[in-house]
């Protein structure tokens, strides 16, 4: 068998040499190229059995292709084909036909002659019906009809009695007809994203159904019964609308239930009888209690409910329990004797103490942050296998010496408490690599810190600390955050040979620091919001990628020898923006008014529109647990007018180039566009178009989600591509200024399909969970760079404006941001509030996932 694979070779024409091998080629793949035409000589590949040419530019299938009688598999996914020739019936041996993501409005009647067809994929087209005689495809086991235009499921569909799998998600139908009962061999049914309110009684005949997905439907009632679905093992009902349950005995074989954001006020009384249930997720509902959790459940997610109580069967098999954001006042009694517990997250509850009956001998992760603990009980010393402990944002006044019993501890988060010192016994924590002490009451570096042998990351921000020189002996440290303290110099850093991430923002440093030869591993340095008159000196910036000098008193922009540097200086970019040249160093100098100013434009020079209350700004960033900081920020005061601010965040993916270059280039581009007699909304869209053209010229290989805000004395203008977010906080509420662009949104799906793309089963488009971005030049126009724009009137009750990446918003809701900022209004330093929000997000996701990059621009009124 001869196989030829020429994927991703930037081919624009069909390779002639393949035709020359006509007697040998049986499997041919030309995916992800730029081929626009298939030559007539394709008919010479007489032995061909499999042909895949997905993600090209084919608009027409040549008639010669249908001379290939041996073809069994034919894939034309993601092209621009509007019709399938009737002579397709000549491919009598075809078993798989994939026409996903084309421009088909109908299937030819002759397709019903392909009696050997087993798989038919026509997902993401424009179909409204199926051929009448499709029942002749008696061997068909899978048909994909998702993301089409079916307002009614075609009656002919239900004559395919041999179907095992049926995908009809994201169409427009509201009724599953009674004829569904004819598909008695179905094992998987996906009807996600339609307008279905009820599942018909006739579904009781689907006795072989194993996986049922009804997500994103306005269901009002669901029948859970062993008689209805005797073989059901997975049921997905996410984002439904408050369905009610028939009280029946539960399906005996069900192993997984997912009901996230389903509007549930209660679970069926039969829930405790789901004796084979192993994985259970009811995150984001209105449950105040849960019937006894079945014994075999190993993964239990009940986050973001109103739970006051949850019970478990004896000898429970729980291994992972996630119950954050509830109203539990104690650790559930049923969990105390669970010996197999591996991870337990009870953060954001009302728990006041540990329970001495805890017997979690295998526990590795414990999160009790954001509770009401005042002491760390001796019970903690039993957890000898604990690797990650989060006790942040409680009211703890001291760490006991028996913390040393946690000999396996690797990460210890205890930020946001009332600590003034740490016990010397902590030096025995030989496995500890991450220690977060931010937002406490330390007035000096606890001496024991320098004795912890393998510490890699230290966060001690937002403490009244003046002297940090003792940290110089931590030569193995790779991350140090001492933002929002009272530090006046940073010469101690020169002994830290492994340091990569250094945050000194919002301190009182006036002497330009010198980072010597020992600091050659520094990658990300933040000295923003200090009192520097000169930029830092780097003797060996071999790995330096980002330097934030924003909001200092700089009047001179320093070059880095042997490196391309770019930043904003007097309106001139300090780099040729040639991606093939040497390593680039990004330098932010926002707010350095002696170094860079944007002259006021006449359209914004109305003195009567000054704000009477000064606006203060600050930023906060964290690389978190990622390998690379791919976010960047904008925070420019008096931009083109008095009391006008340009704020923004860019969240990169697959690299840093687009995010970094966007925030370097966009202000100048937007400023020039604002000189035109057009609206600000129009100026936003034109500026995004210009910068996208620049990215094409530069050949960037990555992309970024972007949110930009132009704040004027009277209005807030927002432009957004993706899932960064801008939130306006008043004295009464938080207001989201623009919608996040998710591929599963019907408005976005319609645009994506029209552009020739499709949303995959995981809800992604082009591999991303967003449908708009800048950069990503190979995925245009499916991922559009055209922003959504909004305008919002400023009010007299305003308090804050937040622009942040999804690293914040994945963990902190708009309401949580409002509650935090509104309750901390008395905190004078805006930078401290920004840093607190950053830590809030980082700490909140520490128990069950890797924290994303976090970038926050905070504006206080």
TrEMBL record:
Keyword Ion transport: no
UniProt GO MF annotations: protein serine/threonine phosphatase activity
Signal peptide annotation: none
Enzyme class per UniProt: hydrolase
Gene3D superfamilies referenced in this protein's UniProt entry, alphabetically: PPM-type phosphatase domain, Ribonuclease Inhibitor
Family annotation (SUPFAM superfamilies): L domain-like, PP2C-like
PROSITE patterns: LRR, PPM_2
UniProt GO cellular component terms: cytoplasm
InterPro entries registered for this protein in UniProt: Leu-rich_rpt, Leu-rich_rpt_typical-subtyp, LRR_dom_sf, LRR_domain-containing, LRR_R13L4/SHOC2-like, PPM-type-like_dom_sf, PPM-type_phosphatase-like_dom
The keyword Repeat is assigned to this record: yes
Keywords: Hydrolase, Leucine-rich repeat, Repeat
E.C. no: 3.1.3.16
Domain PPM-type phosphatase, chain residue ranges per copy: 614-861
PANTHER family given in the database record: PTHR48051, RAS SUPPRESSOR PROTEIN 1 (PTHR48051:SF1)
Protein name (Swiss-Prot/TrEMBL): Leucine-rich repeat containing protein, putative
Organism: Entamoeba invadens IP1
């Amino acid at each position: 068998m001869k196989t030829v694979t020429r994927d991703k070779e930037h081919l624009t024409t069909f390779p002639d040499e393949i035709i020359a091998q006509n007697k040998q080629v049986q499997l041919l793949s030309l995916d992800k190229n730029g081929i626009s035409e298939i030559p007539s000589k394709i008919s010479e590949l007489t032995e061909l059995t499999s042909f895949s040419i997905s993600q090209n530019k084919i608009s027409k299938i040549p008639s010669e292709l249908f001379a290939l009688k041996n073809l069994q598999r034919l894939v034309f996914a993601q092209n621009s084909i509007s019709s399938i020739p009737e002579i397709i019936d000549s491919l009598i041996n075809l078993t798989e036909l994939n026409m996903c993501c084309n421009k088909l409005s109908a299937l030819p009647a002759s397709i019903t002659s392909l009696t050997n067809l087993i798989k038919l994929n026509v997902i993401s087209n424009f179909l409204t019906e199926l051929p009448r005689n499709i029942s002749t495809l008696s061997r068909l086991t899978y048909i994909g009809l998702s993301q089409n235009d079916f307002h009614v499921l075609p009656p002919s569909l239900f004559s395919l009695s041999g179907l095992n799998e049926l995908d009809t998600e994201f169409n427009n139908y509201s009724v599953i007809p009674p004829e569904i009962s004819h598909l008695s061999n179905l094992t998987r049914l996906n009807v996600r994203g339609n307008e279905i309110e009820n599942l018909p009684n006739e579904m009781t005949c689907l006795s072989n159904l194993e996986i049922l997905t009804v997500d994103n439907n306005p269901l009002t009632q669901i029948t859970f019964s062993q008689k209805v679905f005797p073989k059901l093992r997975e049921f997905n009902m996410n984002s439904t609308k408050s369905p009610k349950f028939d009280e029946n005995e539960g399906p005996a074989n069900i192993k997984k239930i997912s009901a996230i954001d389903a509007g549930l006020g209660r679970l069926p009384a039969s829930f405790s009888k789901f004796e084979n249930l192993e994985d259970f997720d009811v995150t984001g509902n209105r449950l105040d209690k849960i019937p006894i959790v079945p014994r075999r459940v190993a993964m239990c997610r009940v986050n973001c409910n109103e739970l006051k109580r949850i019970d478990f069967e004896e000898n429970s098999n729980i291994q992972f329990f996630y119950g954050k954001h509830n109203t539990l006042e104690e650790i559930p009694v049923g969990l105390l004797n669970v010996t197999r517990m591996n991870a337990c997250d009870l953060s954001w509850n009302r728990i006041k103490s540990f329970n001495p009956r805890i017997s979690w001998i295998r526990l590795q992760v414990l999160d009790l942050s954001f509770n009401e603990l005042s002491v760390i009980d001796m019970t903690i010393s039993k957890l000898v296998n604990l690797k990650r402990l989060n006790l942040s944002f409680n009211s703890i006044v001291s760490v006991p010496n028996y913390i040393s019993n946690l000999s396996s501890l690797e990460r210890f988060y205890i930020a946001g408490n009332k600590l003034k010192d740490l016990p010397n016994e902590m030096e025995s924590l030989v496995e500890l690599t991450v220690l977060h002490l931010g937002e406490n009451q330390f007035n000096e570096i606890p001496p024991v810190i320098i004795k912890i042998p393998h510490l890699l990351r230290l966060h001690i921000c937002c403490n009244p600390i003046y002297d940090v020189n003792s940290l110089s002996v931590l030569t193995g440290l790779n991350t140090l955050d001492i933002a929002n303290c009272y530090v006046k110099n940073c010469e101690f850093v020169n002994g830290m040979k492994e340091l990569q991430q250094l945050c000194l923002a919002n301190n009182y440093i006036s002497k330009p620091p010198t980072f010597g030869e020992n600091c050659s591993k520094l990658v990300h340095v933040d000295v923003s919001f200090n009192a520097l008159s000169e930029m830092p000196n780097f003797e060996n910036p071999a790995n330096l990628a980002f330097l934030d000098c924003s909001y200092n008193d700089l009047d001179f922009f320093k070059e880095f020898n042997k490196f391309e540097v770019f930043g904003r200086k007097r309106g001139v970019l300090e780099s040729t923006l040639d991606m093939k040249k040497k390593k680039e160093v990004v330098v932010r100098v926002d707010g350095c008014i002696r170094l860079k100013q944007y002259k006021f434009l006449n359209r914004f020079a109305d003195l009567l529109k000054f704000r009477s209350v000064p606006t203060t700004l600050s930023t906060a960033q964290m690389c978190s647990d990622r390998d690379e900081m791919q976010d960047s920020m904008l925070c420019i005061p008096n931009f083109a007018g008095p009391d006008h601010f340009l704020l923004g965040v860019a969240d990169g993916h697959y690299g840093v180039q687009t995010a970094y270059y966007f925030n370097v280039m966009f202000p100048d581009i937007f400023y020039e566009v604002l000189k035109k007699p057009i609206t600000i909304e129009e100026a936003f869209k034109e500026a995004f178009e210009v910068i996208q053209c620049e990215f094409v010229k530069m050949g960037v290989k990555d992309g970024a989600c972007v949110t930009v805000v132009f704040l004027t004395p009277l209005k807030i203008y927002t432009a957004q591509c993706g899932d960064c977010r801008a939130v306006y906080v008043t004295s009464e509420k938080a207001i989201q200024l623009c919608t996040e662009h998710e591929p599963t949104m019907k408005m976005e799906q319609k645009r994506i399909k029209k552009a020739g793309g499709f949303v995959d089963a995981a809800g992604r488009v082009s591999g991303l969970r967003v449908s708009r971005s800048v950069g990503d030049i190979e995925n245009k126009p499916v991922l559009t760079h055209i922003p959504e724009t909004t305008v919002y009137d400023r009010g007299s009750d305003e308090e804050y404006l937040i622009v942040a990446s999804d690293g914040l918003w994945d963990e902190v809701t708009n309401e949580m941001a409002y509650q935090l900022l509104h309750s901390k209004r008395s905190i004078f330093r805006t930078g401290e509030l920004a840093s607190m929000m950053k830590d809030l997000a980082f700490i909140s996701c520490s128990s069950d996932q890797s924290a994303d990059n976090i970038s926050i621009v905070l504006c206080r009124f």
